[in-house]
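seq as requested:
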Amino acid sequence: LDINNVNFSNDATNGYFISRSFTTPLVSTDVVLIYRKAGAASDGSAVWQSIPRTLYLDAGNELDYDFDFSRNDIMIYANGNYDISTTPQYLNGQTFRVVLVPASTGGKNANVDYSDYESVVKYFKIDDSKVKGF
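struct tokens:
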């Protein structure tokens, strides 16, 4: 599931966040993985970075992306050790890919590196051409 070209919202309760609900609740043992589109490779294909992730910026500034999920929804958060509103390029126009790992194949497996999107796609036989919007 893709969340394309989205801006983080901001409120006093959640800080900077993106929220999405699942159309069908997950099975309680399903796992959610989320990747942020960090750019494009020389061939034009997307470069995906797993979150949570810390970006180390100039002047000692650090911006963190994190997430949580329930059976019904996901929340992606952005936070930092500085006023992150001063770097809107990390808050606006972001694209995330949400990968749902079914309970029947979930859990740790030595053959898949969950931090590497390409490894996850290969292991779970995900067809990128069939990714849907969220």
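The first helix runs from residue 117 to 124.
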